[in-house]
Amino acid sequence: MTIIAEIPTPTRIVFGTDGWRARVADDFTFENVRRCADGVARYVLGEGARARGVVVAYDRRFASEHFAAAASEVLLAHDIPVVFASQAVPTQMSSFEVVQRGSAAGIVITASHNPWTDNGFKVKAPTGSAAGPEILAVIEATIAGNGGTAIPRRPFADAEAAGLVERFDPYPGYERFVRRTVDLDALRAADIDVFVDPMYGPGAGWMTRLLAGGRIRVTEIHRERNPYFGGVNPEPIRPHIDEALGLIAGGGFDLGLLLDGDADRAGAVDERGTFIHQLQVYGLLMYYLVEHRGLRQPVVKSVNETSMAERLGAHYGVAVHETPVGFKYVGPKMIETGAMFGGEESGGYGFGMHLPERDGIYADLLLLDLFLREKAAGRWPVSRAIEHFHQLAGPSFYQRVDVHVDRAAYPALKERLFVELQEHAPPELAGQPVTETIALSTNDGFKFIIGDGSWLLVRWSGTEPLVRVYTEATSQAAADACIAAGEALVRAT
What is the set of domains in the chain, with CATH numbers? Predict the structure, then answer.
């Protein structure tokens, strides 16, 4: 029997909350990476910015360096100079290099915290922030029209020999940049034990290196490259970090610091091995900036971030701005408002005095500085400092459930939720009436708020076939009730 292969339809590529991500060898192919790079190249040419070049970086996922080279070959075919990472680096190092060099854009091959089977393509704006909707619209329009066409490319080795490719190592410049706003020597002098888990990502070794040479003792696990990520998603939340929590709970550590699969997200653990959830970390970093650094510029938070921001803002006289989910919204809003800080529920935090983009390494350094300052004020160990923080910021009981869906069934589920959550919004949650129902401006979910300020958010992902259910409540019982109700809405049970 003869099998006649169908001519594949070009993949429809749409950038989600932060980049385009897909399964390697399925949709994430060299052909589609070249299509994305062609979109970036034509955007750069349209801006008249060819001579400024593009920074290209990559993470430790399967074949990331080869996908990065393929993207570079397309840029080089358009005579756009390329600054290419000398090894796998944290995603934010692309942002750093774009800003330092005045480049036209940045490309990073990474799927961040996605499953090990995926890879992704992120774009950085000239400001160093994630490319916003305006830039992505131009890039996506090009990609929509280049499927099935031959994408021009120039061999990487040939272009490098011709001087059109420059290799870069961001560490020396990044350390100098960090020293402008963080006293690394003071951190190094601390007589404490810190545990670090980079989750096999390109952030491995960075915290250890930045803190080397003093009294502080740093123990780091998962430093080697492992594209399988030990069988977990490289996202610094439970259950993926349970190994680290167990090691810290065993004793001998004052603080745990976490990074995700591309090191642009941060996490923390107290001395007992208790996970400090992402919303707490946002609040702690905001508290650090206003209480210990004396800053009063605005802050930016995504719609799924903590209500502690508003309470802290009211206490300290700081304006709080809310955006849709994704740093492609948070970063530009930070720039627009002159914000000192911005963050999202996923554990990504950016800083006006640093970069308008997520930087897990910098966030972890600030968390370390925060707890050392709290220690000097007599609030130690870390768990005690957190108790003091909640006396000011109020309670935060947070939960998130990711409801994974078959890719083929995902479009129908999104359509059902969009209709049902509008027309049949829950009248009450956790025994309290729903006082407000908010349709997200990006048309990808709904937020329900109850009388005591607790909230439930149901949102379908723009990068994976899953629906995320989030809640932040004033008690554990309310959080349990809200998350159960949200999951039932998604599963229609």
Answer: 20-169 (3.40.120.10), 174-392 (3.40.120.10), 397-491 (3.30.310.50)
